[in-house]
Amino acid sequence: MEKPRVRIYTDYKSPYAFVADDRLFELEDRYGVELEWLPYTLRIPEFMGTVEARTPHFWRKVRYLYMDARRFANAQGLVMKGPRRIYDAFYASAGMLFAQRHGLFRPYHKTVFRRFWSHELEVDDLAAISAVIAEVGGSAADFGAYVAGPARAEHDRIIDEAETLGVFGVPTMVFNGELFWGGDRIAMLAERIRNPETAAIALGSRHRK
Fold first, then answer.
1. Class of residue 7 by CB neighbours under 10 A (exposed 0-12, middle 13-18, buried 19+)
2. 174 close to 7: Cβ distance less than 8 angstroms
3. Angle, vertex CA 94, rays to CA 74 and CA 169, nearest 5
4. For residues 56 and 116, what is the distance between their CA atoms, to the nearest angstrom?
5. Which pLDDT score is estimated for 206?
6. Whose CA is closest to 117, among 72, 64, 170, 73?
7. Which mean pLDDT values do the consecutive 10-residue runs of the chain (209 residues) have?
8. Could you state, in order of their start, the residue ranges of all structural domains in the chain?
9. pLDDT at site 91
10. Is the pTM above the cut of 0.85?
11. pLDDT for the residue numbered 102
């Protein structure tokens, strides 16, 4: 019998994706679902706007968000150091896809998340990501060929498909066509997995309003 599938969109440079990660893996262990992990590489400059547009209100929000995420990290014993600059995480996202294809996803995924937030890894450094691939048992040369070849087109197709579904941030989970955004929705997702029929009730109530 085929397992229920939960699709998860994530990005290694998202603090909230990082602190939600272990709880998402627990879904697999607790409810027997199949997790399909896909990259949704955030385009940070688009969210942040121009330097001139970054008001004191904007910076208060940014400081709060990192403080808030750090509370979740501390509760789990995770190290979370603020990013040193704006990153394009394409190489890390390509590494995710490559690692999945070669049965190396979980060790790669955990290593990249932990080291990035500990300031031990730059997710936009091809050599650094290639080294992680090699460390977890993959071929750095094959990964380099993948990045130079089909990786960008595959990555962009996944992003486009995600946005067609309505994805706009991470972590976003998709179960039976219903989207759940953020770690604070994992409990609701778990309820849907246990009782899929509750989705029809909840969505029906929403449409009647």
1. middle
2. yes
3. 50
4. 27
5. 53
6. 73
7. 92 97 96 96 62 73 92 97 91 98 98 98 98 98 98 98 97 97 97 85 55
8. 5-208
9. 98
10. yes
11. 98
Query: Which positions ≥6 away from 203 have C-beta within 8 Å?
Result: 178
Q: Which CATH superfamily is domain 5-208 in?
A: Glutaredoxin (3.40.30.10)
Name the token pair of 107.
Answer: 């060790």
Sheet with 34-39, edge to edge strand ranges = 34-39, 5-10, 172-175, 178-181
Q: What is the pLDDT of residue 43?
A: 81
108 HSE (CA, 13 A, CB side): 29
For 56-81, write each residue's pLDDT tens digit. 888 898 899 999 999 999 999 999 99
CA distance 9 to 86: 20
CB atoms within 10 A of CB 140: 16
**Beta-bridge mates of residue 6:** 35, 175
Rounded distance between C-alpha atoms, residue 92 and residue 129, angstroms = 6
Instruction: Please report, rounded to a whole number, the percentage of residues in the chain having pLDDT higher than 70.
Output: 89
